[in-house]
User: What shape does this take?
Amino acid sequence: MPTLYEQLGGEPAVQELTERFYRKMLADDRVSDFFDDIDMDRQLAKQKAFLTMVTGGPNHYTGKDMRTAHAHLLQRGLNDSHVDVVVHYLGETLEELGAPAEAVATVRAAANSLRDDVLGRR
Amino acid sequence: MTVLRLKSETIPVTAGQSVLDALLAHGVAVPNSCRSGVCQSCLMRLEDPSVEIPAAAQAGLKVSLRVQGYFLACSWQPTADLAVALPGEGLDFHTTVLANEDLGAAVRRVRLAVPEGFVWRAGQFLTLLRNDGLARSYSIASRPEDGWLELHVRRIPGGAMSGWLHDVVQPGDAMTVRGPFGECFYTTGRGEDTLLLAGTGTGLAPLLGVLREALAQGHAGPIRLFHGAVSAAGLYLRDELASLCARHANVRVQPVVLHAEGACDECVVGALDEVLLSAAPSDWRTARAWLCGDPMLVARMRKRLFMAGLSNRSIFADPFVPSAPA
Assistant: This one.
């Protein structure tokens, strides 16, 4: 059974997914401040690695990466409401790119499973 | 036995081992993260341009990096010997000053002889080194076919290197350059694309490099150059740009100034990012943008173009980061 990564069209499709997803995040005042002063190239590369992972593409991403990457944002008020926004836009973007409903649900669940890592909880 | 050569070291690679794993096993500190060809942390450069790089080792890289021989060390299991380098590792080249000319607007055009073995693309930058070790970066406005390196040097108040280049340096003086670096250059293919070039001050130098190369390659699509300054007194090379426009129907040059006072007849008054966005093409998929100069403005233009629909992969930015105070 092909992964969603393969179904969507592999690397070029995940690049498109990443850019669309990032545009939504940057346009939303609830989360856009977290991306101030950030190098867009690097941020997109990280988000692409994340989206590659949650769509079942090749990766070695671990919860430890997520924990380390977001630790400094906790002091800036990162909380569950922001993770909700991420999960929402992730699903919305996947739907736009024609991902089947089941696959979208799986990805949402995968993203949600990282919530404790992102928010630095045990 | 397959080996990697990195500077003076020779490092063995076992069958099926990646370049990254071989280097790490040998104690070479190569930045890395995902090890899956995604995060691009382990970017390295192949020294020998005749060796073919497997597609998997360049997946997801910008064209500008691919054509320079950059690859992802985690995604290449070499079966033949390779000479590799960490990104940014360059050699120093010795050269001499050919000309040093006043362009107005506190800018001088410094032309340097092309050192043997120095390979660049118009729009990339180099680091100029003085004998005492003082180093500053300048963009290259000329093409290799021009036969010289053309730099635009703005006098920075109290600037050690720019003051020296403006007041002291004469044709015939010896210099050292290191590089080239950067991704701000024209790549062939998609010759019908709309090219947006925007920059402030001597950000014109790399943009001129991109423009000259695009024209030399026969780029047929529209090319829009936006040169920004605080006032018209900060603009330079206007005659040269006007003559480029006169010779090429697809090129338009728009001077943009912040203050209405002292604006030229052709000047648009406003913020460069606003003027740039107002020139949005009808289809972002067939557009590319080069953004150079003031870092804050470059970041703002980059974000606005991206938000408007231009792919990050079609945006080539070269923020001019000032040197740290001594």
